[in-house]
Amino acid sequence: MAYDTSYVGQVTITRKVFSQLDKYLEKNPQLAVAKTRLNNESWDVKDDKAEKSMQASFFKCSGMDVQSIRPSCLGLAVAPTHPKTTEEWLSCFQKPVSRTNPPLTLLLDIDKTVMISGMEPVGRFKNKIELDLLFYDCHWQTDTFYYDRKAILAATQGQVKGHNVVILTWGTYELKELLPLFKLHLLTVDKRSFYNNESMFGYDTKKGFIECHREEFDKSCLLIDDDESNQASNIHFLHCTDHSFPLY
After folding, report:
1. What is the Cα–Cα distance from 140 to 143, expressed in whole angstroms?
2. How far is CA 152 from each of CA 24, 156, 195, rounded to the nearest angstrom?
3. 248 residues of the chain, pLDDT tens digit each
4. Which H helix or E strand runs over 87?
5. Please, what is the end-to-end C-alpha distance for the chain in angstroms?
């Protein structure tokens, strides 16, 4: 194949090397190469071990030090891998998004996870806020809640680092009802990142909704919820209680 000569630092990668790489990829289907393009376009590689394998192939084909060249230098796009455990997810969520740390999505429940309704603080729910709620008979009523300030700030910190925060509540709250709480802690939530009972209409459980929307929710997501029955197979999950919250 007629590749242009490319450069990595002071090292010249020749057409011969690219030709040998083509043969290497053809003989190694486990790399799951989706397509090969010429010149300045890229290989799309899906296997999570592809980068090391391709580094080894460059080393074998060109005789160069494997540390001197990386696939990204030649436009080789390696699909990011998702955290395999909740511990790994939490560690990555606390770090800024980068080439080696792709954005994650925190799925956050509301009731008994972020706040509780009541006249007195309970456990970690120590901060008071009054929210205006719209009821089905179309009247507004001010209700008193106690919320976990540290929990919301932990979510905000993840968002500041480039990660995503999505509200996933089985309650009937409207986004506009909860916005005062989110804005108070600089947490950005909009219609695209807010799911309530109405959004999940037609599903018996939150778990069912998540598992039927695998294109949206995968192992880059972690749900924090007080209800363990909401744990779905396609995402990470951590349980919280009145006295414990996983992000701090």
Report:
1. 10
2. 49, 6, 17
3. 333 333 333 334 445 555 666 666 666 655 433 333 333 334 444 444 554 555 455 445 444 443 444 444 444 444 558 999 999 999 999 999 998 999 999 999 999 999 999 889 999 999 999 999 876 556 667 899 999 999 999 999 999 999 999 999 999 999 999 999 999 999 999 999 999 999 999 999 999 999 999 999 999 999 999 999 999 999 999 999 999 999 98
4. helix 86-93
5. 54
E strands of 29-126, at which residues? 33-35, 44-45, 77-78, 105-108, 115-117
Domain boundaries, the chain: 6-78, 86-239
DSSP state letter for 20: H
Residue appearing with tokens 């089905």: 136
- Mention the CATH class of domain 86-239: alpha beta
Q: Which residue has the tokens 């009054």?
A: 130
Query: To which residue do tokens 């010429």 refer?
Result: 38
Strand partners, 60: none
